[in-house]
Fold this sequence. Notes:
The protein is α/β, with parallel strands linked by helices. The chain folds into four domains: 5-91 and 111-123, GMP Synthetase, Chain A, domain 3 (2-Layer Sandwich); 181-329, Rossmann fold (3-Layer(aba) Sandwich), CATH 3.40.50.300; 335-408, Orthogonal Bundle (Helicase, Ruva Protein, domain 3), CATH 1.10.8; 410-502, Chromosomal Replication Initiator Protein Dnaa, Chain: A. It has helices at residues 5-20, 23-30, 56-65, 67-78, 99-104, 113-119, 133-136, 153-156, 184-195, 214-228, 239-252, 255-262, 280-295, 316-322, 335-348, 355-364, 369-386, 392-398, 400-409, 412-423, 437-453, 458-464, 470-484, 488-502; strands at 37-40, 47-53, 82-88, 204-207, 234-238, 267-271, 299-304, 326-329.
Amino acid sequence: MQQDPGFDLWQRGCERLAAELPEQQFNTWIRPLPPAVVADGAGAEGLVVSLRVPNRFKLDWIRNQYAGRIESILSELAGKPARLELALAAREPLAPMSRSAAVSSPSSQPITVGQVLHNGLRPVSHPSASPAAPAAGPVVAGQPLAAAPQQAPSAAANLPPSASRHRINSALTFDNLVPGRANQMARTAALHVAGAPGQMYNPLFIYGGVGLGKTHLIHAVGNALLKDKPDARVLYLHAEQFISDVVKNYQRKTFDELKAKYHSLDLLLIDDVQFFAGKERTQEEFFNAFEALLAKRAHIIMTSDTYPKGLADIDERLTSRFDAGLTVAIEPPELEMRVAILIKKAEAEQTPMPEDVAFFIAKNVRANVRELEGALRKVLAYSRFSHKEINIQLAREALKDLLSIQNRQISVENIQKTVADFYKIKIADMYSKKRPASIARPRQIAMYLAKELTQKSLPEIGELFGGRDHTTVLHAVRKIGGERQKNTELNQQLHVLEQTLKG
């Protein structure tokens, strides 16, 4: 049989993508797709590659992250320009079909990239198949809802939280989450989960201090899934609500109700699991729910103020499972991210924020997003009540109490003392020329914190560390900042030091 050249081009392109992309990325975003349709473009346009994508979220993600690379690879392989056209696959209602018909009709199942690469499949003519069948309903790996036996209507009625009860805040989405280095890993992982629930990073454990955007991020995952699959069984709750449910059902001896509520979910989003500490019955029930959800390939996302191994008074069975998926941190936002957050929040209030004012606020409010929003509200309110334009002087007046507290609390000298106490070295070691790792490392950490938490310039910080050159300070800042992204233990130590210094 003559081979379809367009199909062959798409297969070779996918083989290249499989070789070039990280395996997890390819398996999540490319492998589940149906083969593209390749056709000659009008005039000298080259090739038009039409690709059907199962949902809007995946369409946007593939367009933003992979379309350029796909076009480049296909153009290179074809020897002429190739343009990628993405469209949503049609969603047709399922017609009644007997089990025997479903099993005996392979032509009704569209071929996916994964099947092509694994089996080397080529298009096969099926007289009874509709020509448009492949575009009608592509197989999607990782639908939130891994296939499970259908429940009787009477049982199913109790399973999903209704749209009014999933507790997802529709205002918290990926669109209004400001990306930055501080939340890059957590945001990327959350996007992967939203695109293919149950497939990877399960469970996803997000940790960090208060007000850094953990709750926003998990609501964004819930909103993305509900947008694509409105009937998905999604539930957001704070850990205290789960504790309350356990207590209530324990008193009533109605644990079947608890299981019906939690074991049937497709996506469980739970905030602040550190609240489970010391509550043995709650931990037992959460362990049971956890195991039941993973067994049916439902997804679990949790947040906490510390990483799994740092959780106190929680059963090791749970912490080991928390750590079995992917654990990511959200850090306090860096300066540029704080500026972007302020400008975006001000736009949402329909009050443009001058960039110099945003920089002034961002340089002085560093703790977390919640404090940043509070400072912004103060400045906006002060501007409205005083009928003055927003400028640096107005911001200084509006935030004078906050600024005086911060300036009084955090100084380089205070940082040096706090770090020296934490690592059990002498304060004099901060200024000395000694270079043993036990002294040099805390000194670099103190320099990093001085740059992050004070207004001092690099030369000023160097002077306060025994007259060191500004390049020495810069090296310390870059070294500790880089390691913080990869070293969980160091990140936790820095988190403790920052919280101590901020009171």
